[in-house]
Write a structure and sequence with these properties.
With 483 residues, the protein is of the alpha/beta class. Helices cover 35% and strands 19% of the residues. A 9-stranded mixed β-sheet has the order 14-13-12-11-7-10-9-8-15, with helices on both faces. Bound molecules: NADP nicotinamide-adenine-dinucleotide phosphate (NAP).
Length: 483
Amino acid sequence: MVSRVIPVEVFDLVIFGGTGDLARRKILPGLYRRYLAGQIPENARVIGAARTDLDDAGYRQFVNDAICEFVKSSKHDKAHIDAFVSHIHYLPVDALGDAGWNELAAMMRPDVIRAFYFSVAPRLFGPLAERLHDHEIADGDSRIVVEKPFGRDLKTAKALNGVLAESFDEKQIYRIDHYLGKETVQNLMAVRFGNILFEPLWNSQYVDHIQITVAESVGVGGRGSYYDKSGAIRDMIQNHLMQLLCLIGMEPPSEFEPDAVRDEKLKVIRALDAPDPKDIVRGQYRAGDDTASYLTDAENPESKTESFIAMKLGISNWRWKGTPIYLRTGKRLRERTSEIAVVFKDPPHSIFGEQEGRRGNVLVIRLQPNEGMNLRVTIKEPGPGGMRLIEVPLDMSFAEALADGDDIPDAYERLIMDVMRGNQTLFMRGDEVEAAWAWTDPIIEAWESAGKKPVEYDPGGSGPDDSLMLLHRDGRRWREIKA
Ligand code: NAP
């Protein structure tokens, strides 16, 4: 089969924070996998930059170790790793000082794409942008990749957008939300806009409700004090779940182009109703038999931060008015799983008799584990004995559907390649991030002024009982949290 992958031009990619956790676990292994896929041009360079004093050889060893730890062993071919690390360089650079900047400026090559990945703490995003500009390291075609979190409220997000805008045009800024890089998330758009089948049904007339669940089985231990300053709403709802909601809810863009897609997503955020406080459930996990409580993990016995949130939302536009959207995310739940379920209404009348029931179709888009989709349909139970109906999933697991199935590109590697191709479709625009904060801020302010503690929930379950009630009282139920 002829490859239809768009080739990438020669680039210099500088990873600020090149010695950090994200670089080690995701960015560098991802680049190696793209190298194996033949997508790293021959003269491309990846330059790690951080304060740690390393030379090229030392950093190449670091990259080698990261590959051995985070890329599956069948891909640990020494010749390939050696060839890949020959693209790798390192420069000690201090984002807050003068060290390294002249050297970095001298290292840049003309006529190649320059990209700068800000894989550092958010307080360094602004200083990095300023220094890149002041030292004339970035040119008009350079790109910066900005990690999350992008601000902690509307004010700080606006301030950061302002600082970045002093040195870079919006078309140069790639605000990353790695959920958008997932295969399934893009497939959601392919399914919606590449088929005639779903679009006529994709509205409040046919969709009963939508559930978005992002459940994690781990607690916040290790990063508890950091997490305690954000909580589930800032850490997950404002960005990841909001982005998923946008892709589910948006109108068909006129073309699959960055601004056409992002304009439509923005309209969804702007049409989101402010949730009624009684439609929000906040929780904190208790201690388990061998797991600590949230309060212990957060090292804050008085904490009022939520490790779980469930909420019911409405979108005030013609397409969605009347279809509730239920969001749920939390730590220390039964399984690590993320999915979107579009639950269609029951057929209006059962010709098979009421005892066979009327069953709605459910389209489930699974983000993890086992990225894929399935559509629950009703069929006749095989065999004689009359018309007995059963529900079966039409299942499409991407791992099985793709030739080298267990090799679906990780979200980060796909997004990095999009940066090199100059494609911003899967990155958040500044106004989108601000609109998301503008919606989130009043919710947080109301909690802070009420000063209420979240309710407790048992570890290993599906969150507080109140979250189950959120759907029960509407005659609905959450899908089971299972991997
Ligand atoms: P990390 O492990 O703490 O790494 C931070 C990096 O920044 C290190 O390489 C550190 O190296 C460098 N650094 C610190 N101060 C610096 C300075 N003044 N100048 C230059 N470099 C400096 O953090 P991380 O987990 O990789 O996270 C990086 C970013 O990604 C954060 O914004 C985080 O929110 C985001 N993120 C991370 C993950 C994840 O899974 N880790 C997931 C999503 C988002 P030196 O100490 O050598 O300078």
